[in-house]
């Protein structure tokens, strides 16, 4: 169950000799949303809220063992301090849903897969997004390790579907993240590595397009994208176990074309770099050297007969 409460808190010693706000950084009423049994607040507040009725205002004296214990909460709560809270239960919601049975999960997977397929067919990629309905807290606390494995395996096609949407939108960073998450769960899926290769091929083509537009681009960056694309595609080919796949073959051709283009641009860059070096440095050095030699020769000619006696 989640609840929203107004809370005013004062930690006290048994003699009530010291006090400080603990619910907010500033003094006054603190409004917060709380989900029971997730361990996000001290145990005393967790138990207190579960005993209250809607709209009730109650005062709770919480012993140290149900509060911050021997550690305290520096600098506001000293070790072994008793807490004094006034709480108003403003609202509450439904309890968290029970975890579905295996039959319900199977039906949900089937229904979700069909919805994903239809979404991709009937809608532009921008609207074809899949939502994961487990929050971080629920995932960590309520889901068993066995069920996490099952759910993660079910997430793989969702990540890959969303990656495909992002690829079609040229949102390479988002697509890379989805592919990496799918590979993190199961690194033996050819489709995951194949789509990751599409991501880096897209990044590489974007860099090459900058050359056509006469914009600045970085050779090392483009080379890195090429290596990542080749590595992922090779992994996808290896996992298909020699089975011909038209999409993989097409991507191999596209990647080879992009590689040749990159090599041509790199060659042009190095040639331009050499020409620039020759024009701006070597030719200048040669010209300066010629001027220096001519000046030295002129100086020698002018002073060649200085030591000879004059003719009378």
UniProtKB/TrEMBL annotation:
The cross-references to Gene3D superfamilies, in alphabetical order and at most eight, read: 3.10.50.40, Tetratricopeptide repeat domain
Q: Which residues form the PPIase FKBP-type domain?
A: 39-93
> Could you say which enzyme class this protein belongs to?
isomerase
In its UniProt record, a GO molecular function of this protein is: peptidyl-prolyl cis-trans isomerase activity
UniProt keywords (A-Z) are:
Coiled coil, Isomerase, Repeat, Rotamase, TPR repeat
Write out the coiled-coil annotation as residue ranges: 255-307
Q: Matching Pfam families, A to Z?
A: FKBP_C (PF00254)
Entry EC number(s)? 5.2.1.8
Q: Which domain of life is it from?
A: Eukaryota
The reaction(s) this protein catalyses: [protein]-peptidylproline (omega=180) = [protein]-peptidylproline (omega=0)
| InterPro entries according to UniProt | FKBP6/shu (IPR042282), PPIase_dom_sf (IPR046357), PPIase_FKBP_dom (IPR001179), TPR-like_helical_dom_sf (IPR011990)
Q: What is this protein called?
A: peptidylprolyl isomerase
């Amino acid at each position: 169950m989640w609840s929203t409460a107004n809370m005013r808190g004062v930690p006290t010693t048994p003699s009530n000799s010291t006090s400080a706000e603990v619910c907010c950084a500033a003094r006054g009423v603190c409004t917060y949303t709380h989900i029971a049994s997730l361990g996000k607040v001290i145990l005393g507040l967790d138990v207190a809220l579960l005993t209250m009725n809607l709209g009730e205002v109650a005062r709770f004296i919480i012993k140290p063992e149900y509060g911050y214990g021997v550690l305290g909460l520096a600098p506001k709560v000293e070790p072994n301090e008793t807490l004094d809270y006034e709480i108003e239960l403003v609202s509450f919601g439904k309890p968290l849903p029970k975890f579905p049975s295996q039959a319900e999960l199977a039906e949900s997977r089937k229904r979700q897969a069909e919805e994903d397929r239809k979404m991709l067919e009937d809608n532009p990629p921008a609207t074809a997004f899949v939502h994961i309905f487990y929050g971080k807290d629920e995932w960590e606390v309520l889901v068993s390790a066995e069920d996490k494995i099952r759910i993660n395996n079910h997430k793989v096609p969702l990540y890959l579907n969303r990656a495909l949407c992002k690829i079609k939108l040229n949102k390479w960073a988002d697509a890379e993240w989805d592919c990496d998450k799918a590979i993190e769960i199961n690194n033996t899926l050819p489709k995951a590595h194949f789509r990751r290769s599409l991501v880096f091929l897209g990044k590489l083509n974007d860099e090459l397009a900058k050359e056509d537009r006469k914009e600045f681009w970085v050779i090392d960056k483009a080379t890195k994208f090429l290596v990542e694309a080749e590595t992922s595609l090779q992994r996808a080919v290896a996992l298909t176990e020699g089975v011909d796949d038209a999409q993989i073959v097409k991507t191999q051709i596209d990647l080879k074309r992009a590689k040749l283009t990159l090599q041509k641009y790199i060659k042009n860059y190095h040639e331009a770099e050499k020409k620039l070096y020759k024009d701006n440095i070597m030719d200048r050095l040669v010209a300066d050297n010629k001027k220096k030699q001519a000046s030295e020769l002129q100086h020698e000619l002018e002073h060649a007969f200085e030591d000879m006696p004059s003719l009378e």
